[in-house]
Amino acid sequence: MKKRRIAAMVLAAAMLTGCGGGGGASETTQAPAAGGGDTAKTEAPADAGGGKEASGEAITITLVESLTSPERTAVIREIADKYQADHPNVTIDIVSPPLENADSKITQMLMNGSGADIVEVRDSTITQYATNGWIADLGQYIDAWDEKDTLSESAVDVIHYFQDTAYMIPYGFYQRGLFYRKDWFEEAGLKEPETWQDIYDAGLAITDPANSRFGFSFRGGTSGYQYADTIYWSWIGTEKVAHPNAAYFLKDGDGATIFTLPEVKEALHYYKDLFKNTCPTDSIAWGFSEMVQGFVGGTTAMLIQDPEVIATCSADMQDDQWELVPFPKGPSGQAVGPNGFAGWGMTSFTEHPAETADFLLFLSNSENNTYFAKNYSTIPIHTNAADKDSYFSEGRFAMYMDMAAEPDVYRHAAYPQMYEAFATYKTEVDVMYQKYLTDEISDDELLTWLDEFWTQAYADEGQKW
């Protein structure tokens, strides 16, 4: 595939999240230099700048991860060791809590005002961290950064995502694509899926419970509601929503929600049919790990997930068994998914803000971010990434560039997580969807609950986009 400009593949930032990061890691401090693990396959690049001369004072900078995995920690450790080599007075500690409770661990540290200088900030946590004053404004450091001009448009948008203040620098984006079993499709004489209807039709044709073969990897556990959202938005199109980052509300609707639209009710019926007719029964409780394992383990034929799964498929499947294609389109003619992001923020209580910001920028420079993005399979933040590594313009990852070449079709949207009510919503919404899928409540009862929740949130907090 011909190389295209990397800038084309990074679109407007929006939420995703539900990515897994791939398994828990033990908590570590001052980890030794690591060779990289399965996903760290190339030598870390040379120092690309961003540092300053050491002052001589012994300093420890503690970075706390959220989306932890041993392989990813090893990549960060390599970059940190490069920085330490050029700054012998600085020690970089990396704390990697188990994935399941990493965000809780970070929140506790932030509430206590100690134990961290840099924390991983996600699209689902930035509002909480910034609202409470736990992370600092990085604006003055970014303004003086000699690599700010190669940041992608999406990276710049995310840096100023909350209150137009630079509370974080993203390390990459998680845009979803459709993974499918190419060998199963060929065996059944099925075409490559392009739409949600194609997914349902192919899933129905492939599903054979007697032989433990199913059409689709459903996510019915934590954050499963996000998949229902993408179906709604693909049915109605983004032109009807108030804002890409507040896509539960209608444009010019003065707080009216999408959940009263007939198209959303139709999309909800599709969502239930997809689960009932093409998915394993126990997938009502599946999270990230289970849905990915269902696909790579030979139980399901299709999976919608982030680019990090490319590495998993490459490691666990034969190359001719699977393929990655663009996010499916709905009746609106659009394919609407999240553009999830995560990155690094500096705590407001760090005792060494200048040095901490210096390491954070080093971690984020184009050489190190390109290396990190390649080994962690995220979309990088610098527009020159493809010039540094053809990985981003060739092979399966290039599918994201194909999507970016049609910005009117492949759109991004996100739930309104800037609302304080969103924290409560996350604790309740998955249970409501599970009740609907198991016929405990009707479609009208679920849609009424969704509409009333966000109508009340708007009444309490007003417009926030």
Attribute tags:
465 residues; alpha/beta; D-Maltodextrin-Binding Protein, domain 2; four-stranded mixed beta sheet; disordered N terminus
Structure commentary:
This protein is an alpha/beta fold. The protein has helices at residues 70-86, 102-112, 126-131, 139-143, 153-159, 182-188, 196-206, 225-236, 262-278, 288-296, 309-316, 353-364, 366-376, 385-388, 399-404, 421-437, 443-461, and strands at 59-64, 90-95, 118-122, 169-175, 177-181, 214-216, 300-305, 322-325, 335-337, 339-346, 410-412. It has two domains: 6-175 and 340-408, Periplasmic binding protein-like II (D-Maltodextrin-Binding Protein, domain 2); 177-337 and 419-461, D-Maltodextrin-Binding Protein, domain 2, CATH 3.40.190. Helix 1 links the parallel strand 1 and strand 2 (90-95). The relative contact order is 0.19. The model is unreliable at 1-54 (pLDDT under 50).
Q: Layout of SSEs?
A:
Layout: E1 59-64, H1 70-86, E2 90-95, H2 102-112, E3 118-122, H3 126-131, H4 139-143, H5 153-159, E4 169-175, E5 177-181, H6 182-188, H7 196-206, E6 214-216, H8 225-236, H9 262-278, H10 288-296, E7 300-305, H11 309-316, E8 322-325, E9 335-337, E10 339-346, H12 353-364, H13 366-376, H14 385-388, H15 399-404, E11 410-412, H16 421-437, H17 443-461
Parallel strand pairs: 1-2, 1-3, 6-7, 9-11
Antiparallel strand pairs: 3-10, 4-10, 5-7, 5-8
